Amino acid sequence: MGLEVLISLGVYEFIEPKVSESLSDNSLIHYFGITSRIPTVIAYLIVFYLSYKTIFRFDNGIEKVKGIKPDFILYLILIAIGLELFDRPLFDFSKIYDYFSGAELKPFEFSESSNLSILYRGISVLIIAPIFEELFFRKFLFGEVLKKHSLTISIFVSSICFSIIHLPSYRNLIPTFIFGIIACLIYNRTKNIFYTIILHFLTNLSWLLLVSYGKSYYEWSYGLNYNFVYWLLFIFGIGLSYIGIKKITVANNGYK
Hints:
About 75% of the residues lie in helices and about 0% in strands.
């Protein structure tokens, strides 16, 4: 996070004042779309270099990809759908609190985004985040802590650090912590980081599609007024996630 902030400050201090005023609206979207993601990529690459101190083996990665089981993909889809339903009350916590405390609820609002903004957001959450975050927080951090500590401690350390990097989005702290736990369990069981990368991709994909095109879904969910159906979906999400996790974590050793 420190490296990312430092690199971002450099970009905004020395580059942005020289180019931002001369760019058109679309060009500004391209500019901010690129410059806001380059610091993240560079920061992770530096951390990878300092942490791993080895070159990633391309041939080993190919073997891991070939070892992916189709039925596991189905279980990962179940988990991703389940997490979307399970996480909804966590994201709606302030609204739920206002509702049950009798406070006046604000009208539903849906933020429209341009296709260019969705494109760059997609690059960030569908490519950069799944690959770099899983390689660091699961493959490296979780794996290194596990060498000296228990599974429980290793999962907690990896998941809490993964959650913290999502600040200042406080609503996302608990959902990302829970996702971190699930990802650690899956990686520990399969020893294949591509499964958690795929799960990360699917989870972010469902979020991206809903925040970009899911106005009808959010209007319907908001209109439930946190009734029985709303909480039934929450329980159903827990069930879907549990089934997917259980199917993967109890698979035989042949899936490793």
